[in-house]
Specification:
The protein has 133 residues and is of the alpha/beta class. Helices cover 57% and strands 15% of the residues. The protein contains 3 helices and 4 strands, in the order ααββαββ. Strands 1, 2, 3 and 4 form a 4-stranded mixed beta sheet that branches. It is globular, with a radius of gyration of 18 Å.
Length: 133
């Protein structure tokens, strides 16, 4: 992101950042709506599958967890002062992992903070970022 904006005016960078924040908010909203819809569908399916041995709520929880990694990535891409172009985000249940590299220790810390703020309660961030500067 920093490289792409190197020749831009401060106003253009601010507009770009604002657009990124709007995109992050849209993903957050969509992920929340999708998670609620998934839970509602799981409850309905659970009621119809009573006694079958199928754990529908676990399946719904997995779908909710899978929605969190893209949400975190968009938030990182929109963060001011952070070059997230070399950061990958993955999930393993309630743990979100940040992998890849950033140019400074400050950006590593900033990425971890943004990831934590993008997640809801019960999630943990594993910051595996390497500083390459």
């Amino acid at each position: 992101m920093v490289t792409a904006l190197a020749g831009c005016t401060p106003q253009s960078r601010d507009e770009y950042s604002a657009a990124g924040h709007e995109a992050a908010q849209a993903v957050t909203t969509d992920a929340g709506v999708a998670a609620r819809a998934t839970k509602a569908a799981a409850n309905a399916a659970d009621n119809s599958l009573k006694g079958s041995g199928t754990d529908v709520k676990k399946i719904a929880g997995n779908a909710e967890n899978a929605a969190m990694a893209p949400k975190v990535k968009v938030d990182l891409m929109a963060a001011k002062g952070l070059d997230a172009s070399h950061i990958s985000v993955s999930d393993n249940g309630k743990t979100i992992s940040l992998n890849g590299s950033v140019p400074t220790a400050q950006q590593k810390s900033l990425a971890g903070q943004h990831a934590k703020s993008a997640l809801g309660p019960g999630y943990q961030v594993q910051n595996n970022l390497k500083v390459q500067g």
